[in-house]
Amino acid sequence: MTTDAHTAIVLSGGGARGAYEAGVMAGLVEVLGLTAVDTAPFQVFTGTSVGAINVAFLAANAHRGDMAVDDLVRIWSQLKLGTHIRFDPLGFIGVRRRIDRLLGRREDRSHGGALLDGRALEEVVKTSIDWARLHRNIDQGIVRALIVAALGIANGRTTLFAETAPKCDFRPSRDPRRLGVEVRITPDHVMASAAIPFVFPARRVQGAWFCDGGVRFNTPIAPAIRSGAKRLVVVSLRHGDGSPMAVEEAVYPGPVTLLGKVLNALLLDPVTYDLQVLDRFNQMLGVLDDALDPQARARVDEVTAAARGQPYHRLETLVFSPSQDLGLLAGDHLRDARPGFDLGRIGRSIFRRAARDSATWELDLASYLLFDGVYAEHLIDVGRRDVLARAADVRAFFGA
């Protein structure tokens, strides 16, 4: 592993909220004044769930200084709810698969059943990312590593699918709950990482079934570090500190509400914890550097390297999270737009409930499922403005 201060972009998961990440990237490019002929600011790309989709696009365009973020913004802005997301309750309960067998249709064994039919969204991923260019960027060392996380359903282990440059010394964790696998990243790996349980179909990759890596590992900071990154830009999709621990409500929350809160717990809450742990480690290592002589400090590194495969070191971090509640933005959009797409009974119920002025609980789930270009533009604008508001921090971090 080289001693260069490689910089990583770390993107977490959150369904349609991922448009905010595109806005952050657009803001970074604008603040740094990057153009296509410049050098990209990142060498390591890690992501989970929708973050895996976004980092795959960025890595495929890392030969450009601006990483083609205008195209990424355009892709998000052109999503159409009625086209790219279809509710599929028959597929969820397995009826559609049985009907196909009865009619003699060829059974698709690469997808599981889920509430949503994500095939149109998958087609966007396949066609919008230049996969040949992605592999070339990695082979040429422009991209040091691309790592996406998915959860193995059979073994319950987080699998880190990693495609690394020839000179990258990627050291997988010794944690038995995690498994590092060196592969050529394909759309299947990325869609497996984005397969939110019960919402998007699980994916079969190399004979095994996988679902959203955010279930147990939503902020892939560790694999970025293990790929040699010393500096991290982390984008969280969680706004603020959340709601009070106890809120008095008149009625019991229904399944729509519960699913939204479960997704919050799986995809958003771990980000805050991971960043807190990272900050504590930075503080602890600072104390050790000040208190120990070089020989004692080297001994600490030897012990930690023996235990986890590499020593700890302090990391520079730049963290962005939404300055506005993305759930409330979803409600505002639904009340203003009143989309008339044919989403089936379940889809109309979810979005109609979320569009009510009194809606509070339903907005969480709506914000994950609202793959709509106009809503995405709102989130992109928030992300861009959040970066512009911290332009001085950005320039200082990148030494611009």
Taking all residues together, what is the mean pLDDT? 80
Please provide the count of β strands.
11
Class by helix and strand content? alpha/beta
The percent range for helix content is 40-55%
Count of helical regions: 17
How far do the termini sit from each other? 26 Å
Unreliable segments of 5+ consecutive residues? 242-250, 341-346
Order of helices and strands: EHEHHHEHHEHHEEEHEEHEHHEHHHHH
Largest sheet: 9 strands, mixed
Throw out a few tags for this protein.
single chain; 400 residues; alpha/beta; 17 helices; 14% strand
Compact overview of the structure:
With 400 residues, the chain is of the alpha/beta class.
Annotate the secondary structure layout:
Elements: E1 6-11, H1 19-32, E2 44-48, H2 50-60, H3 69-77, H4 81-84, E3 86-87, H5 89-92, H6 95-102, E4 116-117, H7 119-128, H8 131-139, E5 145-152, E6 158-164, E7 178-182, H9 187-193, E8 203-205, E9 208-212, H10 221-225, E10 229-235, H11 255-291, H12 294-308, E11 316-320, H13 326-337, H14 344-354, H15 363-369, H16 373-388, H17 391-398
Parallel strand pairs: 1-2, 1-10, 2-5, 6-7, 10-11
Antiparallel strand pairs: 3-4, 5-6, 5-9, 8-9
Structure description:
- This protein is α/β, with parallel strands linked by helices and 400 residues long.
- It has helices spanning 19-32, 50-60, 69-77, 81-84, 89-92, 95-102, 119-128, 131-139, 187-193, 221-225, 255-291, 294-308, 326-337, 344-354, 363-369, 373-388, 391-398; strands at 6-11, 44-48, 86-87, 116-117, 145-152, 158-164, 178-182, 203-205, 208-212, 229-235, 316-320.
- 46% of the residues are buried.
- Helix 1 links the parallel strand 1 (6-11) and strand 2.
- It is built from 17 helices and eleven strands.
- The strands form two sheets. Strands 1, 2, 5, 6, 7, 8, 9, 10 and 11 form a nine-stranded mixed sheet that branches. Strands 3-4 form a two-stranded antiparallel sheet.
